[in-house]
């Protein structure tokens, strides 16, 4: 049986080298001794976490995090048999990009969460009102909101108001450049917490769902 | 105490790694003029007369060392036929990407700048400012780098996919964007800009690894910047530059805009006298600075980078957020005058 730890090391290296064939080979190797969900939980998610931590430390670039997340997300979709597409037990989650067309963060967090075995609705770009209404309709319990500009980051406060007036109160997690440059901004806009990157998103979900986080 | 210099003399001294009378201060306002003129942002940005008047009034108010005719960066995608969304309290954003398929890249042509209204207004702003500046104040134009413009043309994820998966089309897009960027930058210089801010956030090590930068954004900049007939400042718009400082110096840039995520002193040392540093006050955090905090931040930047010249105090993004109050900007300038003097 292959040690998960050694698979994580190799997965991280291959993902950072964008070695798609190497990653596929590794997945094949791992699936001999573990289920697809175990693969997500014990190999893919830890590898993506390390890559995310590398970004936080300025050692890895955002493009590498993006490609790694996307590659794993697609692979996991391929290996999860259609009939077993029930992912991890988890709160109902969604992610959105508030008022911006050019945001990369939302796409990265979505891919990385999915590649870690979580199901997350992707609302793409939304305005405050439409986002609050979608969250209510889907009974969302954890709402990730990514912003690129300070102006849209400040709109999160309006989103909170709109959610409250809709009678919904999802756990509101914000991320994106404005929150990285001012670590207390999330408090000002009445979010519950901020994530620096996709790694934090995984941690937050694990904590909420009572996992390793 | 050294004799008082004009803003242009002070800036040229800084760029030549000489100590002038004090470190220059560049307050890169694009929206605050609207507040001064009591105008909605969209109305303010629609006319060169407004922006020129706003810039001159802001300089009267703060006494900083540059004029910044930039209306909004998304004007460049507007020229390509892209949509721009205006807001009452923030910079206009490029709307839905207008390049939606590979074939759109194959069909893409350089737009005719003479027909691009917002860009023409910016050129007129520069001409108006030139008349007023009387050769004493640097006018800093802005051009998006051909390598970073596609974030607004395609959207960020699709652009990264293009870079990684279709290098041939990537280069075909670069050819169009390079021609456009060079023409736009040179028109600004002809209109009276003193220097061009070459905004290139995608080249930052925050966004792509150095290895990829060397085979993409770096090559683009090395081809583009020498064709711009005036000094260029590479600005990574809050992105990190450590690890590629020398590479950026190799592009011919005379200075670099530094992120608050990087250490200003380290970047200056890494530039080894080849590039001055501009920065690196955190514009987002600035919104809630106290007078004490503003003074600490300015003092820290000056301590790290001012000695021996080669330093211009500025924000780290190349645009001061609309939400930063007047009072805080005043504190920044006061602190710069107090701590930024050379003796």
Question: Could you characterize the architecture of this molecule?
Answer:
The complex is a heterodimer of chains A (213) and B (343). Chain A is of the alpha/beta class and 213 residues long. Chain A has 2 domains: 4-82, Methionine synthase domain (Methyltransferase, Methionine Synthase (B12-binding Domains), Chain A, domain 1, Orthogonal Bundle), CATH 1.10.1240.10; 93-208, Rossmann fold (3-Layer(aba) Sandwich), CATH 3.40.50. Chain A contains 11 helices and 5 strands, in the order ααααβαβαβααβααβα. Chain A has helices at 4-16, 20-31, 36-56, 62-79, 105-115, 128-137, 150-154, 156-165, 177-181, 185-188, 198-208; strands at residues 93-98, 121-126, 142-146, 171-175, 193-194. In chain A, strands 2-1-3-4-5 form a 5-stranded parallel beta sheet, sandwiched between helices. Chain B is of the alpha/beta class. Chain B has one domain (7-339): TIM Barrel (Alpha-Beta Barrel). Helix content of chain B is 48%, strand content 10%. Chain B contains 17 helices and 9 strands. In chain B, the strands form 2 sheets. A 7-stranded parallel beta sheet of chain B has the order 1-9-8-7-6-5-4. Chain B has a two-stranded antiparallel ribbon with strand order 2-3. In chain B, strand 2 (84-85) and strand 3 (93-94) form a beta hairpin. In chain B, helix 4 (48-62) packs across helix 7, helix 7 (117-133) runs parallel beside helix 10 (167-191) and helix 16 (291-305) crosses helix 17.
Could you state the order of secondary-structure elements of chain A as H and E? HHHHEHEHEHHEHHEH
Distance from first to last alpha carbon of chain B:
6 Å
Radius of gyration of chain A: 17 Å
Fraction of residues in H or I helices of chain B: 40-55%
**Judging from the principal axes of the Cα atoms, what is the shape of chain A?**
globular
Q: Largest inter-chain interface?
A: A-B, 26 and 37 residues
* Straight-line distance between termini of chain A: 26 Å
- Strand content of chain B is 5-15%
Widest sheet, order of strands of chain B: 1-9-8-7-6-5-4
Average pLDDT level of chain B: 96
What is the number of E strands of chain B?
9
Q: Oligomeric state of the chains? A: heterodimer
Indicate the CATH architecture of the largest domain in chain A: 3-Layer(aba) Sandwich
Q: According to CATH, what is the topology of chain B?
A: TIM Barrel
Q: What's the arrangement of strands in the largest beta sheet of chain A?
A: 2-1-3-4-5
């Amino acid at each position: 049986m292959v040690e998960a730890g050694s698979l994580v090391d190799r997965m991280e290296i291959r993902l950072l080298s964008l070695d798609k064939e190497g990653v596929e080979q590794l997945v094949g190797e791992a699936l001999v001794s573990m289920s697809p969900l175990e693969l997500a939980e014990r190999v893919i998610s830890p590898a993506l976490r390390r890559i995310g931590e590398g970004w936080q430390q300025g050692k890895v670039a955002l493009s590498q995090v993006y490609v790694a997340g996307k590659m794993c997300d697609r692979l996991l979709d391929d290996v999860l048999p259609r009939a077993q597409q029930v992912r991890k037990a988890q709160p109902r989650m969604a992610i959105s990009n508030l008022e911006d067309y050019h945001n990369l963060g939302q796409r990265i967090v979505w891919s990385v969460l999915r590649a870690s075995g979580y199901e997350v609705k992707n609302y793409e770009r939304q305005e405050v009102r439409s986002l609050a209404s979608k969250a209510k309709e889907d009974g969302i319990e954890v709402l990730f909101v990514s912003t690129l500009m300070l102006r849209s980051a400040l709109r999160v406060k309006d989103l909170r108001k709109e959610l409250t007036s809709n009678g919904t109160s999802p756990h509101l997690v914000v991320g994106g450049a404005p929150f990285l440059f001012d670590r207390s901004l999330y408090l000002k806009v009445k979010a519950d917490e901020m994530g620096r990157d996709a790694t934090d998103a995984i941690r937050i979900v694990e904590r909420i769902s009572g996992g390793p986080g | 105490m050294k004799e008082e210099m004009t803003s242009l003399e002070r800036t040229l001294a800084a760029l030549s790694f000489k100590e002038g009378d004090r470190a220059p201060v560049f307050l890169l306002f694009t929206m605050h003029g609207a507040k001064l003129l009591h105008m909605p942002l969209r109305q303010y940005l629609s006319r060169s007369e407004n922006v020129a008047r706003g810039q001159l009034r802001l300089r009267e108010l703060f006494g900083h060392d540059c004029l910044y005719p930039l209306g909004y960066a998304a004007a460049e995608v507007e020229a390509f036929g892209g949509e721009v969304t205006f807001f009452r309290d923030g910079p206009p954003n490029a709307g839905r990407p207008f390049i939606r398929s590979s074939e759109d890249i194959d069909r893409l042509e350089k737009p005719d700048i003479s027909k691009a209204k917002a860009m023409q207004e910016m050129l007129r702003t520069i001409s108006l400012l030139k008349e007023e500046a009387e050769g004493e104040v640097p006018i800093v134009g802005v051009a998006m780098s051909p390598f970073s413009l596609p974030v607004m043309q395609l959207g960020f994820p699709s652009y990264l996919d293009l870079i990684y998966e279709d290098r041939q089309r990537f280069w075909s897009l670069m050819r169009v964007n390079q021609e456009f960027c060079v023409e736009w930058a040179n028109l600004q210089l002809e209109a009276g800009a003193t220097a061009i801010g070459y905004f290139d956030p995608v080249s930052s090590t925050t966004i792509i690894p150095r290895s990829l930068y060397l085979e993409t954004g770096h090559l683009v900049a090395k081809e583009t910047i020498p064709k711009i007939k005036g000094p260029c400042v590479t600005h990574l718009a809050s992105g990190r530059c450590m690890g590629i400082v020398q590479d950026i110096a190799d592009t011919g840039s005379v200075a670099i805009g530094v992120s608050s995520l990087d250490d200003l002193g380290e970047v200056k040392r890494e530039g080894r006298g080849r590039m001055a540093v501009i920065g690196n006050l955190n514009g987002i955090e600035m919104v809630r600075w106290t007078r004490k905090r503003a003074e600490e931040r300015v003092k820290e930047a000056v301590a790290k980078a001012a000695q021996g010249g080669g330093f211009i105090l500025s924000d780290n993004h190349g645009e001061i957020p609309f939400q930063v109050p007047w009072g805080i900007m005043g504190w920044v300038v006061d602190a710069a005058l107090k701590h930024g003097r050379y003796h």
